[in-house]
Amino acid sequence: MELGNPRLWRADLLLGAHDWLTRRAAIMPTSRRANRFDSFGKGTIICFPSTALFGEHSIQIGEDTLIGPYVSLSAGMAPGQDLISNQIVKIGDRCLIGRQCSIVGHLEIVIENDVFFGPNVYVTDQNHGFSDLDSPIGRQAAGERPVRIGSGSWLGANVVVLPGVTIGHHVAVGAGSVVTRGLPDYAIAVGSPARVLKTQEPG
Q: Which of 44, 48, 105, 195 has the maximum number of C-beta atoms within 10 A of its C-beta?
């Protein structure tokens, strides 16, 4: 660093402050914010900043899970909403949720152990209806259907998982896919809607 250059000195100072804030503002098991969750496992971290984070009392997160920055993680549509259960969103052990992902639960979303998400993955258990032509589509709930993502699965960047989907164990879903129906164990699937290219045989 050139001590005689105020511009470089200020830039380094700002970067250092940003790094300090990012570490200090992350949610860890020892954070007071972690106490809002139904459970928050040992070794788990939610990176700073999060985009939306509410309904924590209905969210369970296992151990050694990393949730990246700019992630939306919510149970319900808005803070303070009455929820049907204290176990709406369940994320298992050793998961990795990439930056800018959104997990929005109303009924039940289960992400089992060792599941990895690329960036910008979107998972929801509720959609919108459109049959009432006198009402905005955004106000027409189509009903919740549970979602489950099996252990050891990987979802590439920009994958969308829609209500009622069950993804099996050790499933790879290619980037940009839209999963509208269940995928079997050990499948490799791509496309919109996602289709199974092949199913691997476990050793």
A: 105
Maximum Cα interatomic distance, the chain, rounded to a whole number of Å: 67
Element of type H or E holding 173: strand 172-173
SS (H, E, C) 100-139: CCEEEECCCEEECCCCEECCCCEEECEEECCCCCCCCHHH
Q: Say whether 18 is catalytic.
A: no
User: For domain 26-199, which architecture applies?
Assistant: 3 Solenoid (2.160)
Which one of 18, 106, 128, 169 is the catalytic residue? 128
Q: CA–CA distance from 65 to each of 21, 129, 158, 160 (Å)?
A: 21, 34, 20, 21
What does the angle CA 184 – CA 197 – CA 71 come to, to the nearest 5 degrees? Answer: 65
Domain spans in the chain, listed from the N-terminal domain onward: 26-199
- Name the β-bridge partners of 128: 141
Cis peptide leading into residue 193 (ω within 30°): yes
Token reading at 65? 């899970």
Per residue of the chain (203 residues), give pLDDT as tens.
445 677 776 766 666 555 555 666 799 999 999 999 999 999 999 999 888 898 999 999 999 999 999 999 999 876 666 777 778 999 999 999 999 999 999 999 999 999 999 999 999 998 888 888 888 887 777 778 999 999 999 999 999 999 999 999 999 999 999 999 999 999 999 999 999 999 998 77
